[in-house]
Amino acid sequence: MQANGNANQRIARISAHLNPNYLKMEGSSGLQQVSCRAKGGAPGFKVAILGAAGGIGQPLAMLMKMNPLVSVLHLYDVVNSPGVTADISHMDTGAVVRCFLGQSQLEDALIGMDLVIIPAGVPRKPGMTRDDLFNINAGIVKTLCEGITKCCPNAIVNLISNPVNSTVPIAAEVFKKAGTYDPKRLLGVTMLVVVRANTFVAEVMGLDPREVEVPVVGGHAGVTILPLLSQVKPPCSFTPEETDYLTSRIQNGGTEVVEVKDICKSWGGIGNTINALDSHIKIPQAYAAVKFADACLRGLRGDASVIQCAFVASQVTELPFFASKVRLGRTGIDEIYPLGPLNEYERVGLEKAKKELAESIQKGVSFIKK
Ligand SMILES: NC(=O)c1ccc[n+]([C@@H]2O[C@H](COP(=O)([O-])OP(=O)(O)OC[C@H]3O[C@@H](n4cnc5c(N)ncnc54)[C@H](O)[C@@H]3O)[C@@H](O)[C@H]2O)c1
Ligand SMILES: O=C(O)C[C@H](O)C(=O)O
């Protein structure tokens, strides 16, 4: 005890390492909060993850810590962020990692950020739609976006929390209310369905998924997810059965994962071992989120021709938001591409997608305007 100091002092040392907001003040017995901006060791972008201790948040934090474009990584959550930060900060990559815990530290987590990634909120359980998450996640996204308006209104925002079809309009309304809205900087992350589409098409066609590009437009739930199989690169032709199978599998990929994980969970562990699925770590979801975040950072850096699909404010259809291919640049979205020629199957799908999307968008807008 002598050598290591008392418990408060030990906590203070650990906390100061993890969190620049907690520094042990000379002569004080406990922790005292002081304001301090995180400093990065290497040049690069400052990125905050809100919801960093969650199933997506943790692997996302690990992968962003490995990204050479990131110099400072802020990990914010309402629980467990110190443990996650301790772990991630031991990786010998360039980004400096800082921990932020609880609402009182939200603003410090956000000050000066170039990119804010939001996977905060509850995930689906079997039998639920993404829209069933609205009641809880709408309020969470609203609070986090209010923080962004105050602390980093020019940051690019990657919104992952579901239902994306409603949370993006919620974020837009919060930013509009604060007078900080820039539609070029707000992007709903739909990359995961593109990743799945590339994989499933590659499986059917016997191709390497890294060489396949499937544009997926519309939104991020059920029938609003519209893969444009007529525009796959390299050009492929599909039988009607293959088109039905692929469209349905891409639209229901999220549900497939939720259900299979739940079945595995019900098997339990072997003997007394803990079932790893209890932790709900979501690695491919984080992979997709990082693929998208990396594209945004490359755009910010000024790389040419960075093109990905995302759910954004759009004039591609009559709806105010729509997912389609966008080109990313130094200030966010530089260009939104039109849908291109659709076949009859896709035209029918588009009408279904727009009907559901219109309701989800309106639900998000009304949540803030009510
Ligand atoms: N867009 C996509 O492609 C995609 C993919 C997968 C999951 N999701 C969505 O992402 C969300 C998170 O999924 P998950 O599996 O990581 O869930 P999770 O429950 O494992 O993690 C969510 C994290 O958010 C935190 N959180 C809750 N309220 C918060 C608040 N007010 N501020 C900050 N953090 C808060 C929780 O403490 C938790 O650590 C869900 O809504 C899920 O549906 C989206
Ligand atoms: O399906 C979900 O609930 C999570 C995510 O949107 C997914 O597509 O995996």
Automatic annotation (TrEMBL):
EC annotation from Swiss-Prot or TrEMBL: 1.1.1.37
Protein name, entry field: malate dehydrogenase
PANTHER family: MALATE AND LACTATE DEHYDROGENASE (PTHR11540), MALATE DEHYDROGENASE 1, PEROXISOMAL (PTHR11540:SF71)
Active site positions, chain numbering: H220
Keyword set, alphabetical order: NAD, Oxidoreductase, Tricarboxylic acid cycle
A GO cellular-component term linked to this record: chloroplast
Pfam families named in the record: Ldh_1_C (PF02866), Ldh_1_N (PF00056)
Domain of life: Eukaryota
Keyword Transmembrane: no
Family affiliation: Belongs to the LDH/MDH superfamily. MDH type 1 family.
Subunit structure: Homodimer.
Example of a GO biological process term: carboxylic acid metabolic process
Molecular functions per Gene Ontology: L-malate dehydrogenase (NAD+) activity
Transmembrane segments: none
Domain Lactate/malate dehydrogenase C-terminal: residue ranges: 190-367
Record-linked SUPFAM superfamilies: LDH C-terminal domain-like, NAD(P)-binding Rossmann-fold domains
Domain Lactate/malate dehydrogenase N-terminal: 46-188
CDD domains reported for this sequence: MDH_glyoxysomal_mitochondrial
Enzyme class: oxidoreductase
Residues that, per the record, bind NAD(+): G51, A52, A53, G54, G55, I56, G57, D77, N137, I160, S161, N162
InterPro entries xref list: L-lactate/malate_DH, Lactate/malate_DH_C, Lactate/malate_DH_N, Lactate_DH/Glyco_Ohase_4_C, Malate_DH_type1, NAD(P)-bd_dom_sf
Ligand binding (substrate): R124, R130, N162, R196
Catalytic activity of the protein: (S)-malate + NAD(+) = oxaloacetate + NADH + H(+)
